[in-house]
Structures are given as C-alpha cells and as structure tokens.
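Model it.
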Amino acid sequence: MAATARWEVVRKPSRRGATSGGGGSMGRKALGDANGGRSLASSIPLTTSETLFELGFEKTTKKQNKEQVPPPPGRQQQKKQNSGKNSKKGTAGDSGQNKQIKNRTLEDALKALDLSELQRELDKSLNLFPENPSVWVKDLAGYLNYKLQATKSEPTLSQHPHDYPYCLVNKELRSIIKSLLLKAGGVLELFFDHCIYTMLQELDKTPGESLHSYRICIQAILLDKPKVATASLSKYLELLRSHHNRPAKCLTIMWALGQAGFADLTEGLKVWLGIMLPVLGIKSLSPYAISYLDRLLMIHPNLTKGFGMIGPKDFFPLLDFAFMPNNSLSSSMQEQLRQLYPRLKVLAFGANPETSLHTYFPSFLSRTTPSCPSDMKKELLICLTECLNLDPLSFSVWRQLYIKHLPQSSLLLNHFLETWGNTTKKVRKTLQETVHSFSVTNEELAMKGPNNFQDVAACRTACKNLLLKMKASGFPWPRLILILLIFTAGFLIYDIKTHGSFQASASAHVLQSSGILSVSEQAWNKVSHFSVKGYSWLEANIPVYYSQVATMLGPNLELAWTKTNETAIYISGKCSAHLAWLSNHLLRLSEWLQTQLPDSVLYAVEYLRELLLFLMRNCFLPVVDYIAVSLDGAWKMWLAFCNGEGSWTCLKMHLTNLIQSSWTYLQDTTVAIKDWAVSTISRHQQ
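Modeled.
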C-alpha cells in the first residue's frame, strides 16, 4: 500500500557564508598593498583591491527566512516561463542601456556627473580611512571611471588637443581633484603607477571600458608635479619593452608619460629621450614619438629651459635619423624630423656653445665622409665650421684627429676654401696656423710611404690652395692710405722748409689758385667766431638763468615736497586698517583666484612677473648703478680739480687749460713728425 502523500517544508541553504566576506570594510586593501605583489613588467593580470565605491555598488543578498511550499507543477512551470521572459527582457534592456552609455560623448558624461554625490563619496572614504590616502585616490578614479563611460578613443588621442580630456573638466571638478591630490601627496607615484597599470589591464579585456577617468587623473597629477613621471623612467622602459608586440599598450604608456612634458619642457625632454628615442625605429611607435616631439617644441617655444638635456650621445642618433637615407623611418617622418632638427641642435649646443662644441667636433668629423649623402654632408660641414668659429678648442681637437681622418679633413679644408669670404679674421688667423701644421704633417706622411697616398695628396692640394688664398686675401687699403698721408705730410713739411714759410711755399700757391685755401680760411673764421660767441653767451647767461629758476621754483618745489610727504602720511594712516584686513585675507583671496581664474591667466601673470623681475635685475638696476657711479665720479673729479669749490670760474679755467695742453701736444707731435720727415728726405737726397 502506498504511503500517504505528505507536504514537506523545503528550506534554501543560507548564503550568509557566501556574503559575509565581501561586504565588510576589513576586506579593504591600500593601494600599496594591492600593488605590492606585482611588478610593472609582469603581463599576468592581477586582481585589483576593493574600494569604497565598489563596495557601495555591490548588490546585497537577502536571506530567505520564510518556509516555502512548492506550488503545483503547472503553476511552477508557468512561473518558470514568465521568469525566463522577464530575464530576457531585462538582459535586452541592460544591453541597450549600456550601448547608449558607451555611445555618448565624454562632454555629455561630464555634464551628467553629479559633483555633490562625488564629494559625498570622497568624504565617506576620508572618514573611513583617514590614514590611508591611497584609498582616497583609488575611490576617486573608480567613481569617475564608472560615471564617465563614453565612446572610446585611440590610445594617443592624436585627434584632440594636447590637454584632452582634462581640458573638458570644469572648474568645480578640477578643484575637487586638485584638493584630493594635494591631501594625498605622498602616494602620487603609486597612484600614477596604478592608473597606468589599470589602463593596461582594460586593454586586455575584450569589450573593455573607456579610460577617460584615468587619463584625467594622470593629467591632473602631472600638471602640478611632472617629475612623478620621470622618477622611474627605466622601470617604464622595461614595461614598454615587455609589451613591444602590443602597440596599443605601448602607445598608452608613451601617452601617459608624455603628459609631463606639457607642464615642463625639461621633464618632457627626459621622457622623450628616455622612452621614445629608444623606440624611434619601431614602425608602429615612431609616428607618435615624432608627433609628440613636434607638439612639445611647439608648446614650449622658449628653448632655454631645455638647455643641457640633449648631449652628444642623444644628438647624433637624431642627426642620423634625420639625414641618413634608407633608415627605419619613412620619408614623411624623416622630413618631419628634419624640420625639428634646427631646434634640437639649439638644445644640444646649449647656452654656452663656445665651451662645449669641441666635444661634438669628433663625431661631426667622423661622419663627414666623401660617400656621405649631399644633404647630410652640407649640414655636417656647417656644424664643423660652427664648432671652429665658436669654440677655439675645436682646432686642437682637429689637429689630434687629422691623421686618422684625412678624407674628412680634405673636405673641410675645401669647404673653407669655398667659403673664405665668410670667415672671420679671428678664425683666419687660427686656421692659418692649423693649415701650416697640416702641411708639415702632410710632408711627413708623404715621406713614410704610399699608404693613404690619395688622401694625403688631396690634403696637400687643399692646404696649398688655402695658403695661397690666405696670402692673397685682398688689397691692403689701410696701409696704402697711411703711406699716402705720411708722404703728403712729408712733402708739405719739406716744401715749407725749403721756401721759408707756408705762404711762400708751392703748396700754398696751388691751394690759393684752386680756391681751397680761401674757402678753408673762411670756414675756420666762421667756426671760430661762432664758438667764441656761444661760449661768451653761455658764460654770461647760465648763472643768471640758474639764479632766476632757483628763485622762482625753489619755494614751490619745497612746498610740493612737503605736501607730498603729508599726503603719503595721511593715506597710510587712513588705509592702515584696510591694509591689515587685506594682509589677513590675502591667502583666502589667492585661493579664490586660483579656483575662479583659468590656469592660463595664472601662468601668464607668473611669466609677466618673472619677466619684470628679470628686466629689473639685469637691465634697470645695472643702468641706474652705472649712471650713479659715473655721476659721482665726475662730481668728485670736478671737486678735485677745483680744490673742493665747484664754481663756474674753476670749470672755465680747467677747460681752457685742457684745450691749451691738447693744442700744445698736437703742435709738438706735428713738429716731431716734420723733423723726422725732413731728416728722412735729406738722407735720401744725400
């Protein structure tokens, strides 16, 4: 007999154990702990630590405490069908909503962002973990990453401005981000590392998420502290090499590190030389490396801040990439790099090329071979000439390298021969000594044997032609004019001595018959007359006018000075309270201005202040000091001449004595020249 059918109470298993470990705050880990077990070069994806934001959005599981009785089979089957339909509808609705979120622009996502909610989440994080700033910044990045899901962009953002996406962030959100980063200043390097690593992890996922929030955080960090990116460039270079077969990851790393250069040219050059120059030959990475360098030098037109960053070991690979054909760069990229080359050369030569160019000379000389491409040969010869013109030590370096670089030296000597007219006198003198030493060396090499016979012959010919060019370097006009003047003076002296006086001499008759003597006498008489008349007028009227001006304006000037002092004292007394209030609220005013004014205005004001300080220190103050010292010296000299009495009579007396002594010296010199010329002519006649 069958047993009587009975209903049984069915209980679902408790999920308390499954949910107890995920919701507690004890499961939180700091950024340093979460990243402590990995290295940057590892390609194995690691589990990121939980954040307060993730815990807040985690779904809680409800426990079922009621006893449930299984419904009839028909009703249970109908319920399953209905639940299946509802789940399909829900899945379709979620996918449509996610698709709509992914297709919106970043501008729309930023406009829809609730800043008050963000501030509440950050305040909650600060209250729960007051001693763990790494959690704060991770919560910031996590919240923004959830809210700013938008259309994805390519890794380098080449179609956008250099400060995209941070340029889209409004002032309020910037203020929130900056204040939080300021509080978490000790973990910024770890946070920067976390942002890069998270971006690389998202690139491994098939759909993946947009990385705008991490890009915004990276730009916010490097805008104020660009040295965060350059603190461990070797580590990032290893990371870049470990992902060499993943161009998207490499470009993401290059973009993140390159943001430091837009705030500081020095840090940007460090990133480019340490990260992008080593990968310049890679086809997928070279376009971004060159475009980044172009944008970096365009944003920083003042290259003085980058002096000292590029040395010979960095400059000459760039020279080879720019001018050597058939290298790993395409023709368009090589042309783009060649357009940047002049500015790179300025950066390499630095602020004091007269003391550093001799270190570049050996590499320039070794590359100047006869088989060198014409464009590169032209540039190398220009650089060699510039080294010799600016740095005198380059000549000694050339003498040491001459025997080992005979073909290159012959090209350089022929270049000097072609451009001899543009060579300065200082360089010509040193070059002449160098060519003489080369000639001696050529003779010694010719006597040793037939080794390098063609190169030695080419150098001998170039040295010979250059020495001939030096000897016939133009007509000596100054010497000819000096000889003519001496001959004319000697002839006049001899003529005057022969005839007894100037009026009886043949020279006077010639000058008088031609009318030159009468015109000269009239001009001299007029000049003398007006000079005496002007001197008499000054002597008679200057004391009178000075006394009248002192009488009329003296009391008024004294009264104006007194009133000015009283006004200044009155204004300072009235405004003392306002000045005290302003000094107390100056810090608050500066903070308000920083939040209200654009960053570009603040940068412009800072640059203007530095410019004014530079002009004050280097131009205005030295000129004022020089004028003051000159006036003081002139006044002391006048007092010394006048025995402490600065009177007009004393000045007149000393000017008269100075003119008389000058005239006496001129007469004595003329007589001495005349005696010498007469004695020379008399000896010649004998």
